[in-house]
Amino acid sequence: MNETLVLCAVESGVATLTLNNPPLNVVTLALTGALDAALDQAERSEDVRAVIVTGGGDRAFCAGSDITEFPSMMAPGQVVPQKLARQNAVFNRLDRFPKPTIAALRRLVYGGGLEIALCCDLLVAEEDVKIALPEIKLGLFPSSGGPLRVTRRIGESRAKELMFFGEPIDAATALSWGLVNRLVPEGRALQAARELAATLVERPRGALGLCKQAIGLAFDHPFDEALGRSFALSDIAFSAAEAKEGVAAFLEKRKADFKRL
């Protein structure tokens, strides 16, 4: 495993994970392993309170999987153990990461690159970004969470349009569909993601993690069951030191200091 395929830099409570497989940062088996190692580092570090995922270079966030790896996986029963099981495990880890995550998108966000981005909580895209799930043109379909995460985010009809045709959409369309959260000028995605992350660093880390869990319940359980499960999360939040600090700060008319907790 080559850990230089995903660079990890920590500054001011934010870990920036940079996909570093030039020129297009394509997803290989080695990059998947490097991403897992970087996530492990960011999760273990008490200094990290938020994570940004971005792409190195100036051509792509990530242009999808390395198709040169595909021929050895095309016999029946081969692609799951050789690629998809491991890849989905790592992508799911990013999706369920206990700290807030932000994808900073530029230029091309194709295939597996979009599947990585959609595992993040927030997506910031530059105005010249092109987004696509082009797997259908290879006789395939997205297989690392794309059909599920895209459909949850933008609905069945638009997900089918994106996957059936395999054509790229522009950043403005992605914003109007709800696929990304914010658009920024070219060259500004990483800085905008850092500004969002700086705000999240000031938020209570425990409550943010519980909030992520509560939101996740909406997709995995019937409403009444999800609501019941959320009560347990609320009980944890109400009895935590963060809530005591937040309520005390409100009553004392001062800014809460969650970073010390």
Task: Describe the protein.
- Helix 1 packs parallel to helix 2, helix 4 crosses helix 5 and helix 8 runs antiparallel to helix 9.
- The protein is globular.
- The protein has two domains: 200 residues, Alpha-Beta Complex (2-enoyl-CoA Hydratase, Chain A, domain 1), CATH 3.90.226; 47 residues.
- The chain is 47% helix and 16% strand.
- It is α/β, with parallel strands linked by helices and 261 residues long.
- The mean pLDDT is 94.
- Helix 1 links the parallel strand 2 and strand 3.
- It has a six-stranded mixed sheet, sandwiched between helices. Strands 4-6-8-9 form a four-stranded mixed sheet.
Concise account of the structure shown:
The protein is α/β, with parallel strands linked by helices and 261 residues long. The chain has helices spanning 29-44, 79-95, 112-117, 146-154, 156-165, 171-177, 189-202, 205-220, 223-238, 241-251; strands spanning 6-11, 14-19, 50-55, 60-62, 101-105, 108-110, 122-126, 130-132, 169-170, 182-184.
